[in-house]
Structure formats: structure tokens, C-alpha cells
Amino acid sequence: MSPSRQVTADRGDPRPGRPQKRQAIIDAAQRVFSQRGFTHAGVDVIAAEAGVSKQTIYNHFGDKQALFTAVVHAVKTRVRAEMRHSFEAGYTESGDYDRDLRTSFRLLVRVLLSDSVAAMRRLVIAEQVRHPELAREWEQDRPTFEAMLTGQIEQHTAAGVLNVTDAPLAAHQLILLTANDAIERSGHGLHPLSDEEIATIVDNGVDMWMRCYGKNRNDTT
């Protein structure tokens, strides 16, 4: 197909195919933005990566800024779902909350350190001066996850498993000791961590947290 026909075909795609094409553009843009950064990611390069014309991208998104925003939103939405899945998948009815925490946070850290998520996090950090609204949007899900964890901590405190007086603070501390520590140690994903390294970081964090909040902590003076 000639270039002129390609452009015509892109413009004339039937409506049912547009969501798939939009997603293909977002996926391609994510790869290009991650590799080149926002400034050096040309719309022509993104179009070539997606197999569409530049005009198709403009038709869908208007400009590169709007496309970048759509990419951040798409990745954030996927991460939110994967974080929730990790949180729920690690929780069992066995009553062993210590073990459940380790399982949940190992799964969570793997999500946060996956190549695509880590690359997007680095890009958002790099662009936060010019695009502070995207940095704010990227962090919006953290309070949601902390709220989920807070609720779980409150339930286990009521059940006598934990000794927690400030559940939101305890949730925040647990995230710092596990997920945040892993992210920092990996250089925000630049230095991949093995499963064993992730397990060690999470286990150390949970150990410290449980020594503070577990029902069997040493309260003797």
C-alpha cells in the first residue's frame, strides 16, 4: 500500500476498529517515550512504531502532550489493577498474616519493578518539572493502595493479630520498608533485582514491621 493510501485508510477506519488502533498508538508511544524521553520522542517515530500515519495520531490525540498524558493514564490504570490483584492474591484465610504480607508485597514489588512500569516511573520523574500534573496523577493511586492496606491492618488489629494504634501510619511505614526500599535499591528499575533479592528486601521489611506491630512483639521493660 502506498503512503497516500495508508493515510487514507487510517482516516477512514470504521469506528469499531478505532479503540484497537488507539491502544496500538498508546502502546507504541509508551515504548518510544520510555526509550527517548518526552522531548526526543517525535510523533513521526511513534507513528512508525504504531504502523499508522502522523495524522492518525493527531486525529486521536490532538498533540504529543495529550498522547503522553494518555500513555501515563493507561499505564497507571494497568498498574492499579495489578497492584490490587497482588494485594488480593497474597491474602489467604489461613490466619498467617505474616506470611500473607510477604507474599503480597513480593508480588507487588515485581509489578512495580517490571520493565514497562519502571521505565514510565523514571520518565514521569524526569518530566515532573515541565509536567507536574502527570507526576501528581502518577502518585494518585498510592493513597488508594495505602487505604486498602490500612483497612486490612485495622481488621487484623481488631482480631488481635496486630498491636496498631495508627493504622494509616503503619501502612505507610510498611510500604516504605518493602516496596519503596526495593524501588530505590533497583535504581528505579535500572538495576534489575532477582526474585531472591526481592524476597530478602520484603522479608527484612516485614520482619522489622512485625517486630513493631505484631502481637508477639516484646513489650517487656
UniProtKB/TrEMBL annotation:
Gene Ontology BP terms: negative regulation of DNA-templated transcription
PROSITE patterns: HTH_TETR_2
InterPro entries hit by this protein: Homeodomain-like_sf, HTH-type_TetR-like_transc_reg, HTH_TetR, Tet_transcr_reg_TetR-rel_C_sf, TetR_C_Proteobacteria
SUPFAM superfamilies attached to this UniProt entry: Homeodomain-like, Tetracyclin repressor-like, C-terminal domain
Segments for region (Disordered): 1-21
Pfam family membership, one: TetR_N
Domain HTH tetR-type: 19-79
Annotated keywords: DNA-binding, Transcription, Transcription regulation
An example molecular function term from Gene Ontology annotations: transcription cis-regulatory region binding
Keyword Transferase assigned: no
DNA-binding residues: 42-61
Name of the molecule in the record: TetR/AcrR family transcriptional regulator
Taxonomic source organism: Nocardia vermiculata
